[in-house]
Design brief:
674 residues; alpha/beta; Rossmann fold; 3 domains; 31 strands
Length: 674
């Protein structure tokens, strides 16, 4: 019996474990059949599932565990990122699975199996046990020999001195014949993702579906197969999108599938080995060979020319075949799978829904990471790894008709503190975080002296005028307190919390961790009485900053620069590099400023971004504010500057501004950080 057969015959769904209850049906989630069949496929020792969220990862673990407990008992281990996550998985997944499925309920938790040591993290049954552990506890991973290991959410595993948690867990299977290691997770960042690395080590299986009209097998890909109506201008540029019209288009016949046809097609899913191989002196890419075959002769059976269908009572997969000798050069010892939301049968994952999510994320670096990982099931390639040339940024600088361009809705300031100066960037923010570098000021002086901070305060009381005469004051300021002047920054910001002047400190993220730009949790009552800086996610901010520097056209996230910046400022803005590092066998990326290079402009912009994030955390709706203060319809079109850099000019500050637009909220927890 295979795992899908076992689940269809014996498994019951608990009401609290999902949106449905009753009998399990693999036909409902056909995409999961292949990975479940791999559990009993002859020769398979490792299974990897690099897939999008809410598709099949948990179902694979649950059904495999149930199958083994019932029909092939042995010691098993489930590894979650942390022990708390292991307990939660036991409560929300394993316990309902056992309680709802009669054949499991008879084996686990009876008087014969219940013992004093049985807990949320240990379930005994005749012939074996199921232990659950956190990846951050190497002792727990190495405690018991087991025959089967299930590693869930692998990309969230911490880096430990003992090494890779997956490797530690797999070592527990050394004494068993016929052992099995299963790893599942949505991927994260390309080149850093554990699940991506595991997938690439395997035979890289991808799914195809049959076109309801012509029978051609499509390896569904969001960008290749999902299309929707658009409006275009005379130059062919898209002016409007209509994601509600999104549908799958067959690459062979061009037929668009309605939702009924798409669901019918999902019932024809087959899995194919797609890993490149070398045989008979040739390198072969199965997917490329398949595409070349059907394009050369649409009437041919391109699938049969590329793969052999290998099916039995407990397995079913297309094995990659050498076109010359007919052998199967790709081993199935490690069966690895990948799939995105285009294979999901759920209404919330229909093409119009995915298309809408794509349009909402395509211009936002942070949202794009989430889209790639959770919707496509693919690792995100950092655009921050692209080279950004300071001279090219300087060449696109603009001249504005007023201090504040028409697109600006609010102004924030980011500050960087050195022993002999404070550098400040005044940034105007428009819709969808389009930004304008309005002013850059260096306040020179000993930063241990009050006179220097008095001048900083005077700068922060500036107002800026738009062409129509409207004045803008500074809405929020973040000043880095991580240098030698932490005490002075604390005192300065604490006295001005009512004006939203915040002291910040970069999060001590290690091993490539990315903390949120602005903390999402409220401080506890214990910490509210003690003044502390805001801990900001500098790595996340620098990822976003570098990605936005690559944007070529004005719009969401685009960065506008003034002609009043010198080339050295652009060099500081682009000084840092993203470098790969390795710790305990894990690859990750860190931002590094080369020795001898200055990066104050980068730090100032990061803090200006943090100030905006702080306002948003307090409830400000940026786009609504921009719309509310937008000027009359006259366009404010910036003039392109000449390639030659203009010299900097002195900009004397105006008189202190009128009260800011955003009233201080007495209930704000930020205000209470005194």
């Amino acid at each position: 019996m295979s795992v899908p057969e076992w689940a269809d015959r014996f498994r019951k769904l608990a009401p609290e474990a999902g949106s449905t209850s009753g009998d399990w049906s693999t036909r409902t989630v056909e995409i999961a059949r292949g990975p479940m069949l791999a559990v009993t496929e002859l020769g398979v020792e490792t299974i990897t599932g690099m897939v999008c969220t809410q598709l099949m990862k948990t179902a694979l673990i649950e059904n495999a565990v149930g199958f083994f407990v019932h029909l092939d008992p042995a010691p098993m281990l489930i590894v979650q990122p942390k022990e708390a996550a292991a307990e939660q998985f036991s409560k929300e997944r394993i316990t309902p699975l056992i309680r709802a499925t009669p054949v499991l309920r008879k084996l686990i938790g009876t008087k014969k199996t219940r013992s004093a040591e049985e807990t949320l993290l240990y379930k005994a049954f005749p012939g074996g046990f199921l232990a659950l552990a956190g990846a951050g506890s190497p002792d727990n991973l190495a405690r018991r020999p087991v025959k089967r290991v299930f590693c869930d959410e692998t990309d969230k595993y911490p880096i430990t001195r003992e090494g890779d948690p997956i490797g530690l867990a797999d070592e527990r299977m050394a004494t068993y014949v016929g052992s099995l290691s299963v790893r599942v997770c949505s991927p994260t960042i390309e080149g850093e993702s554990l699940i991506e690395s595991s997938y690439l080590e395997g035979d890289q299986r991808q799914a195809s579906v049959e076109c309801p009209e012509c029978g051609h097998r499509n390896f569904l890909d969001f960008f290749k197969h999902i299309n929707w109506d658009k409006d275009y201008d005379d130059d062919g540029n898209v002016t409007a999108h209509y994601p509600r019209t999104a549908q799958v288009l067959c690459e062979a016949c061009g037929c668009g599938w309605n939702e009924g046809q798409r669901l019918t097609a999902l019932g024809t899913i087959r899995w194919h080995q797609t890993k490149r191989f070398r045989c008979c002196g040739k390198h072969v890419d199965p997917l490329s060979a398949y595409a070349a075959a059907w394009k050369a002769d649409p009437a041919s059976d391109a699938v049969a020319l590329t793969w052999d269908w290998w099916e039995g009572p407990r397995h079913a997969v297309y094995r990659a075949r050498c076109p010359d000798c007919g052998t199967w050069p790709v081993s199935n010892e490690h069966a690895s799978f990948t799939a995105g939301k285009v294979f999901s049968p759920w209404p919330n994952d229909a093409p119009p829904k995915i298309a809408a999510k794509w349009l909402a994320s395509k211009n936002d670096p942070d949202k794009r990471v989430k889209f790639d990982n959770t919707q496509l099931g693919k690792p995100h390639k950092r655009s921050s790894s692209k080279e950004v040339v300071a001279e090219l940024l300087a060449a696109r600088a603009e001249i504005w008709p007023a201090e504040v361009p028409d697109g600006v809705g609010i102004i924030t300031v980011g500050g960087d503190t050195q022993d002999d100066r404070v550098e400040l960037e005044f940034v105007g923010w428009g819709a969808n975080e389009e930004s304008w570098s309005l002013l850059y000021v260096i306040v020179e002086g000993d930063t241990s002296k009050k006179s220097t901070w008095d001048e900083v305060d005077r700068q922060l009381l500036r107002t800026f005028k738009r062409a129509d005469g409207r004045e803008f004051a500074i809405e929020a300021t973040c000043i880095d307190s991580g240098g030698h002047r932490a005490k002075e920054v604390y005192e300065f910001s604490k006295a001005r919390l009512g004006r939203k002047v915040w002291a910040t400190k970069g999060a001590s993220d290690r091993n490539g961790k990315r903390s949120p730009l602005w903390p999402t949790t409220r401080p506890s009552n214990r910490t509210r009485t003690v003044f502390k800086p805001i801990i900001i996610g500098v790595n996340s901010a620098k990822d976003t900053l570098r990605a936005r520097l690559t944007f070529a056209e004005p719009g969401p996230g685009y960065m506008h620069f003034s002609t009043k910046r010198e080339l050295s400022w652009y060099e500081q803005l682009t000084a840092e590099r993203l470098l790969p590092k390795v710790a305990s066998g894990r690859v990750f990326s860190v931002w590094d400023c080369p020795k001898g290079k200055a990066n104050e402009a980068t730090d100032c912009r990061v803090n200006a971004m943090a100030a905006l994030a702080g306002l948003i955390q307090l409830g400000m709706k940026l786009n609504a504010v921009v719309e509310a203060v937008s000027p009359a319809p006259e366009a404010d079109i910036p003039k392109r500057r000449s390639p030659k850099l203009a010299p900097p000019t002195d900009e004397p500050p105006p008189a202190p501004p009128k009260p800011t637009k955003f009233a201080n909220r007495s209930g704000s927890w930020m205000k209470r950080r005194r």
